[in-house]
Amino acid sequence: MARLSATARGERFTFRSLAHLLAAASPEKSGDQLAGIGAASALERVAARRVLMDLPLDTFLRETVVPCDGDAVTRLILESHDAGAFVPFASMTVGELRDWLLSPAADAQSLAAAAPGFTPEMIAAVCKLMRNQDLVRVARKAEVVTRFRNTLGRRGTLSTRLQPNHPADDPKGIAVAVLDGLFFGAGDAVIGINPASDNIGNCRDLLIALDDIRARFEIPTQTSVLTHVTNTLDLFEAGAPIDLVFQSIAGTNAANGGFGVTLEVLREAQEAALAADRGTLGRNVMYFETGQGAALSADAHHGVDQQTLEARAYGVARAYDPMIANTVVGFIGPEYLYDGKQIIRAGLEDHFCGKLLGLPMGVDVCYTNHVQADQDDMDTLATLLVEAGVTFLITVPGADDAMLGYQSLGFEDIGYLREVSGRGPAPEFAAWLEGAGLASGGRAALPDPARFLDSLGLVA
Amino acid sequence: MSAGLQERLAALAAMTPSRVRLDAQARPLPMGHLLSFQEDHAAARDAIFTAPDWGALRTALDCPAPLLRSRARDRASYLRRPDLGRRLSHDSAVARTEPRLAVVIADGLSPPAVMANAARLMECLRAQCPESREAPVFLAEQARVALGDEIGEAAGAEMVLMLIGERPGLSVSDSLGAYLTWAPRIGTRDSARNCVSNIHAYGGLSHEAAAARIAWLIEQAFALGATGIALKDTSAAQPSVLGEAQS
């Protein structure tokens, strides 16, 4: 390996490995400091970026940050790398890739063609050289389109997950929260419940309840109950109506082990969902959630910074052609992302890296009460993400998830975002909202709500 | 909108604790809702940063209760470094009395939860559980759940009971959690604890009911010589076995 060193203000900084260099070049994150791998000083951070700027991109094909031996994620990344797609970038440095991404040569078409040629580590590296505005400017050029019962990711759209969680999984309470979201035109990415109980019978009841609402009103969307993938396999056996298979994933083999998943079980679940053949427009059947800090919290980070490991999780996700993927950026706590500034930066990084690696990337714009952040920070991040062309955002009633105990975006926030950006829901869903007389883009009013309540079968 | 529809929507909203508005006109958040949300968030934020009044708690407990500190020197370091909150500060001295049970009362993420609930819970527990009457009580500042392991180990206790302020939610900001750990040692896994959570006065577990569950768990743990996944709860009420510590 070439000597990784640079001078800043007359001080010489040397980095002992690729992982050390990437960590030192990262914007300040409490999680990297907790792991003891963040830059020791602001000057060291800049020196690391100078080294990174001149680092040849193909270094990442010859040197791994997490050794292949024993790590199925590293093997997957290297084995699925498309050498043909990488040809135009083979002689570039990380800094030159940054310049190319900002140039007009990088457009929707060239970015889509390049995605299989980029490894997660390459994209994580270039991300560290980019300011927030660069992350917005480049990500909005990428277009990732997926299909199940509708079409997500088209230019000019902003989709939402409607998250109607209930602390006791009560189907009526959930139906009321679904209605609350539909009034604001939410739910085109997915109507997805985090169950309070992972009991199989309970999850099956929730899947049936969601599918019943979807089918009764012929809503062109997909549903999901976010239980463990092995439970979902059991639920397939039990004949439950499963649209999207959900799983949380991370960027190392050991961290995925902490989640109780392997690449094989994800493949098995994808095949089961494809065999169920419930999508009418396409065959994107997976739903993944990720978040910076997941590997560290599982003590499985291998001395690699949390943003690089997050990009590696996207390397896993894209192997399964997901319908949607999102980072739960502010959920994990202040020991990983300390405040609004760090959450905003991480949200933009995650969206950028996901899009450049070819994922239909969404974000849970959120925070917990022990993080130094509030709704103003969420407004800032959500507004920036919509400008960056985020595929979808998560929305809950009144911005307060009463089951998981954290704050996300509220349905009315989508009304705001659609109004200022002019973006609308997925085309099929927009047409359905129009037909149902429901809030089109969170603006129009429902002409006869009483009739709608009757047809929903909601009798108080 | 008709009065009948208003009533129906209000009845539907009562079916979920979520902040649904069921606004068919999809209007922006009304000012009153915005301020209610901000008030709830403010209460949660203030709870995290309120300093505990250990003197008042010691008086209420009516027993000697030495104050121990973790290695997290202040709230900011506590929030950033959970590892420091799990270890005793270097100048802490714990008397090795080898009790059957040691009790640690810790601020956690909500000092007001400790002030509101700990003394009364201990009173109820002492009425039901003989071991708790003999147990030395320690107060712990800037503490995570696992700090109880080091304290229990230093005291030579067979078992440690940690009462700790839970992460404030929007609806309740002073809820107490109780964690029971057999053979406490530094590095004990969370799956080796039993947890009784949501102890508070706003529809949570009452002090009496929580004390009954904890007393039952203590008795079973002594009989079994274990806590955590090995101690399946078969009492009428079901305290949850802990997967992941909350604080």
UniProtKB/TrEMBL annotation, chain A:
InterPro entries hit by this protein: Aldolase_TIM, EutB, EutB_dom_2_sf, EutB_N_sf
Keyword Translocase belongs to the record: no
Protein name: Ethanolamine ammonia-lyase large subunit
Keyword hit for Ubl conjugation: no
Cofactors, names only: adenosylcob(III)alamin
UniProt entry keywords in alphabetical sequence: Bacterial microcompartment, Cobalamin, Cobalt, Lyase
The enzyme's E.C. designation: 4.3.1.7
Subcellular location: Bacterial microcompartment
GO (cellular component) term, any one: cytosol
One GO term (biological process): amino acid metabolic process
Binding residue positions for substrate: 161-163, 194, 289, 364
Lineage: superkingdom: Bacteria
Gene3D superfamilies named among the record's database cross-references: Aldolase class I, ethanolamine ammonia-lyase heavy chain domain like, lyase
Organism name: Salipiger mucosus DSM 16094
GO molecular function: cobalamin binding; ethanolamine ammonia-lyase activity
Co-factor remark: Binds between the large and small subunits.
Binding, adenosylcob(III)alamin: 195, 247, 297, 403
UniProtKB/TrEMBL annotation, chain B:
Pfam families membership: EutC
Entry keyword set: Bacterial microcompartment, Cobalamin, Cobalt, Lyase
A Gene Ontology term for the protein's cellular component: ethanolamine degradation polyhedral organelle
UniProt EC number: 4.3.1.7
Pathway assignment: Amine and polyamine degradation; ethanolamine degradation
Record's catalysed reaction(s): ethanolamine = acetaldehyde + NH4(+)
Cofactor dependence: adenosylcob(III)alamin
GO molecular function, one term: ethanolamine ammonia-lyase activity
Any one biological process term the GO annotation gives: amino acid metabolic process
Cofactor: how and how many bound: Binds between the large and small subunits.
Localization per Swiss-Prot or TrEMBL: Bacterial microcompartment
Residues where adenosylcob(III)alamin binds: 145, 166, 195
Family: Belongs to the EutC family.
PANTHER family for this protein: ETHANOLAMINE AMMONIA-LYASE LIGHT CHAIN, ETHANOLAMINE AMMONIA-LYASE SMALL SUBUNIT
Self-association and partners: The basic unit is a heterodimer which dimerizes to form tetramers. The heterotetramers trimerize; 6 large subunits form a core ring with 6 small subunits projecting outwards.
Protein name: Ethanolamine ammonia-lyase small subunit
